[in-house]
Amino acid sequence: MLFNALNRFVINKVFQNNRFPLWTIVVLGSTALAITLSNRDILEEKAELPYGVSSNLPFEPLPYIPESNKKFVPVDPAIRTIQVEVASGESLSLIFQKVGLPDVDLLNILSLNKDSEKLKNLKPGQKIKFELSDDLLQKLVVEITNLESLIFSRQGESFSMRREAVKPDTIVVTAGTKLKTSLYIDGKNIGLSDSVIMQLTAIFAWDIDFTQNIRIGDRFKIIYEKLEIKGEYYKTGRILAAEFVNQANRYTAFLNTDNNGNNSYYSEKGHALQKTFLRNPVDSVRVSSRFNLKRKHPILNRIRAHKGVDYAAPIGTPIRATADGQVKYLGVKGGYGNTIELQHGGKYTTLYAHLSDYAKGLKIKSTVTQGQVIGYVGKSGLATGPHLHYEFRVNGEHRDPLTVKLPAERPINIKYKTAFEERTRMLISLLNHSKAHDTRETKKITETIIRLYSKR
Ligand SMILES: [Zn+2]
Questions:
Q1: What burial class does residue 246 get, using C-beta atoms within 10 Å of its C-beta: 0-12 exposed, 13-18 middle, 19+ buried?
Q2: How far is the CA of 408 from the centre of ligand 1 (A)?
Q3: What is the whole-number distance in angstroms between the Cα of residue 309 and the centre of ligand 1?
Q4: CA-to-CA distance for 379 and 385, rounded, in angstroms?
Q5: What DSSP letter does each residue of 115-143 carry, written as one string?
Q6: Closest-CA residue to 168 (of 227, 233, 238)
Q7: Arithmetic mean of pLDDT, 214-241
Q8: CB under 8 Å to 63, separation ≥6 — which residues?
Q9: Which of 11, 133, 395, 453 is deepest in the core (most CB within 10 A)?
Q10: What pLDDT sits at residue 21?
């Protein structure tokens, strides 16, 4: 085996250099044979070492092949590689011409299968690699996306194709800053992508009002994924952990991914950050009028959309906040009479109308918790009888409160709890690491975190 390798190597070398007449092949070849035979012991000993490490042979050392590489792969110097980046308006046909390859190869490749047809529409910036030997195309590698390449290999007159998928590598990075201008600008200044900034506001949307209550001096720290392909930045991934100090309040969030791949964030104690709603704001429920966009109004006697639900109930029946939130409006509002509007996170609002009274002490900006009594059923405003008129809006749009898909809040499922706690401990220790801290320690932690997240 070794002898064959030596001999091939010699032949390759001589051909490559083109400096030696043919007879040298014969001479060197037989020299190699002679040495091989006469120094069998030495060579066998040498075989323990990586090839080429020692060179007490009468010619150049063999190419270095790592020990782990059991199979000897001869370096073929006759292979010529040409790398091309597709320029604007360039077709594969034009590129083949530039490289000097015949149309027949191009046609064989393009007509191979459905995937190879993709090569008819190349985009600027796509990378193409040609491997030629003796000016004959042996291999064509076309990068379809950052994550996928098609590889065509010569099989006689035609080509075979295989697909190579690249899985991006995940690295974990930390970032954070104190706000000097705005979350967006300061976030950009420390290199965060739009996606990461949006994730951050979505994670805390229930607890922090990012449109009204962000202050200079607020600060945050996050741990997030960065995806790389072959060591180059590809895109940002998920936020794994976040801490936001908004005025005097500190909020934390830690990612859990369930077996179906759904991502949810929890406080370090495992409470969901995404809150849920009670379906009904009054306890004893009799729906007297449903959500109906074409209802004839009982008092105005004309078509007027009923963008909520009416619950018939005696005057004074307590009304409960259907979710944690903040009082956005409290007072008389035209035909609604005494009205309360609550803001829940960034996305949801609820409205309670025709009240006889408000809960004591409640005012605009008060925070309320789910189930807290906020007022009492009445018939103020345009109402035929005592009832609660209740509206539910998602991003400002009315939805039927009885059928709207409500966000699901689940405390962390017991089956994920141990793993969640283990990861969260690591994430907290990383959040608490100062920048200048031992980077080896940080590296160890991030590697563990990546392993833990990929384990699930
Ligand atoms: Zn109504």
A1: buried
A2: 26
A3: 5
A4: 6
A5: GGGGGGS--TT-EEEEEEETTEEEEEEEE
A6: 227
A7: 92
A8: 9, 51, 52, 75
A9: 453
A10: 42
Q: pLDDT averaged over the chain?
A: 81
Query: 284: pLDDT confidence band, cut at 50, 70 and 90?
Result: low
CA of 288 to the centre of ligand 1 (A): 9
Give the Å distance between the CA of 352 and the centre of ligand 1: 10
Distance 336 CA to ligand 1 centre (A): 9
SS3 at position 318: strand
- To the nearest 10 degrees (0 to 180), the angle between helices 103-110 and 92-99 is 150
Residue entry with tokens 């103020």: 380
pLDDT-derived band at 231 (thresholds 50, 70, 90) equals confident
Q: What is the mean pLDDT of residues 410-427?
A: 89
CA of 318 to the centre of ligand 1 (A): 17
CA of 289 to the centre of ligand 1 (A): 7
Tell me the per-residue pLDDT of 73-117, one tens digit each, with 9 for 90 and over.
455 668 889 999 999 989 999 999 998 999 999 999 998 888 888
384: CA distance to ligand 1 center in Å? 10
Distance 354 CA to ligand 1 centre (A): 9
Q: In this structure, what token pair is assigned to residue 244?
A: 């936001």
> From start to end of 134-248, where are the E strands?
136-145, 148-155, 158-165, 169-178, 219-229, 232-246
Residue 389 alpha carbon to ligand 1 centre in Å: 4
For residue 33, pLDDT over 50 is answered with: no
For residue 209, report the distance from its CA to the centre of ligand 1, in Å. Answer: 29
Of 281, 220, 216, 228, the closest CA to residue 252 belongs to 220
Span from the CA of 357 to the centroid of ligand 1 (angstroms): 17
pLDDT of res. 142: 93
Query: Which domains, from first to last, does the chain contain?
Result: 1-77 (no CATH), 79-165 (3.10.450.350), 168-274+411-456 (3.10.450.350), 287-399 (2.70.70.10)
pTM above 0.85, yes or no: no
Distance CA 269, CA 262 (A): 19
Residue 213 has pLDDT above 90, yes or no: no
366 CA from centroid of ligand 1 (Å): 25
338 alpha carbon to ligand 1 midpoint, in Å?
A: 13
247-256, 285-294, 321-330: segment of lowest average pLDDT: 285-294
